[in-house]
Design a protein that fits this description.
With 188 residues, this protein is an alpha+beta fold. It has helices spanning 6-9, 29-33, 49-76, 84-87, 92-105; strands at residues 38-39, 108-112, 119-124, 127-128, 131-139, 143-147, 161-171, 174-183. It has a single domain, classed as Nuclear Transport Factor 2, Chain: A, CATH 3.10.450. It is 29% helix and 27% strand. It is elongated. Residues 1-36 and 38-44 have low confidence and may be disordered.
Length: 188
């Protein structure tokens, strides 16, 4: 089995949680390439605290679902795991699936657990589409990439505590996680 640097195997876990959680903390260049939401015609509109609270809760629920789906898909080496599409949208969905497929092709799976402590850093209901930015301190010390046959830990795939960021975007009334990045150089 080929080994790679740890960040390559973790899409956002997040599987890449992730993208993959999958789960994996992903490519850092994505954060710079993230398209900016644009303000629509109601850019001056204000939203009630209840609307913002609902958006926060829905975005955090989507993020939690993303992490759980990524863990399940990574544990089974199943890039087409049906739960992924319930919580992820492109481009993160594709990144997570590719990371899981790559691990599978190398005979590796994810095992163990990680601890997540997400917070919402911003809510933008007037942007098109509406977005919620999430910041997380992921503790992946108990989450390992292992050889599927021998169960030996893949060298260089150890975890730690680091910052992760994600964007939840509202698509046709559903909040999905479409961007994510692990910042392994930023401990938390």
């Amino acid at each position: 089995m080929r080994t790679r640097r740890p960040g390559r195997w973790m899409i956002l876990l997040v599987t890449a949680l992730t993208a993959t959680p999958v789960a994996a903390c992903g490519a850092k260049p994505e954060a710079a390439a993230r398209p900016q939401a644009t303000a629509g015609p109601s850019a001056t509109a204000t939203h009630s605290p209840a609307e913002e609270r609902a958006a926060r809760e829905a975005a955090l629920a989507a993020y939690s679902g993303y992490l759980a789906a990524s863990r399940a898909a990574s544990r089974r080496s199943d890039p087409r795991h049906p739960e992924l599409a319930k919580f992820l949208a492109d481009p993160l969905l594709t990144r997570v699936r590719l990371a899981i497929r790559e691990a599978k092709e190398h005979g590796a799976v994810r095992t163990g657990t990680f601890v997540s402590d997400p917070t919402v850093t911003s809510v933008s209901l007037d942007s098109v589409p509406a977005t919620v930015e999430i910041q997380d301190c992921l503790d992946t010390t108990g989450y390992r990439l292992v050889d599927a046959k021998t169960k030996r830990v893949v060298p260089g795939s150890g975890g730690g505590r680091h910052l992760a960021t994600a964007t939840a975007t509202r698509y046709h009334g559903r909040w999905l996680i479409n961007y994510g990045a692990g910042h392994e150089d930023q401990p938390c």
